[in-house]
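Our preliminary data section would be incomplete without showing what the modeling component actually yields. Below, a chain of 370 amino acids is followed by its predicted structure, encoded as tokens that our downstream tools consume directly.
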Amino acid sequence: MEISAQGCFHEANFIDNNGSLKSIKLPVVQELARQGLKTLPDGFTTAPPDPTLSSKELAFIPAIDVAKLMVGSEPKARAEELAKLASGAKEWGLFLIKNHGIEESLLDEVEAVSKGFFGLSFEEKKASVGTYMSKDNMGYGRNFMEANDHQMVDWVDRLTMKAAPKEADGGLDVWPKTPANFRKTIEEYVEQGRKVCDELMQALAEALSLERQAFLQQYDTKETDITVKVNYYPPCPRPDQALGLPAHSDGTNLTLLMQSGATGGLQALKNNKWMTVAWPHKALLVNVGDLVEIMSNGRYKSAWHRVVTQLEEERISIGLFYRAPPHAVIEPAGDFEGGGFKKVVVGEYLSKLYKTRAIPTLKPALMFAK
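Predicted structure:
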């Protein structure tokens, strides 16, 4: 079934079966949704329909009180919170956070500018920001397709910006001009989010009875790499046949997430079963990334997760992808030997991760770090 998005297309890169980089034009999902489709275009569907995409079984992940993790907090409460943090990172690779110090008014502004951008027409969005497929897929467009021209297309449009370190965007036009306060708002959120992630990295080390700096001392924290991704998931006519994002783990230390619109879009794999993560609208959620799994020598697990679509509601997620810089060499901290991980250069690991994204097995890239 061929459907046009009325001349609105994104270009997307993919690797063909010969290993060559190619590009194709794909319809803008937001524009397809505005047509009120009853069925999905070719390329967007699973075959046959997947009943697990509408799983009603909820995963209740721990909610961590970040204020109680701080050095100097009441000792008993702090010890209990550290244990809860370790449990979430080991069992799920996911946890919610509260009392994190990021003002609710700033979170409201982040939500407002994200909705404001995706509320623009396609032409206005293209005029507001550039698209750079060859530069880590920055700007407004589609996710990189790390497979071939038979890969199922995700039901998502996205906006991606390199936010840290300073000048990381290389002067590219990746920051929307509309809304006018978009960049200022997101950069303020990045700075506050960085502080939260730094604190969580220290607490995660301490929760394993390591020195608090055991993870952070492996790289220069002034060079921490932070990418911001705003994913827009419009209503989908067949949620049982489409994915917002396929199953994956994040190539990060931590990913800090907030959402707007529909809830129930995030699913995590637990005991070979997909479960919908119970994630209240105003809460922040943290994904443990592959790099923390390596640094903890497998004691913490990166979350294997995916995004499902909704029939009648749109959803926006705003992710801060926080990781050690590409040139950093990371390794397991402490003397725990059970995980089998070794030293790895972050940039080399990420290259391996991108090349293995289409392999339908759990975390294939992590074998590169063993």
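The mean pLDDT is 90. Residues 92 and 270 are 7 Å apart (CA to CA). Preliminary results of this kind motivate Aim 1 of the renewal.
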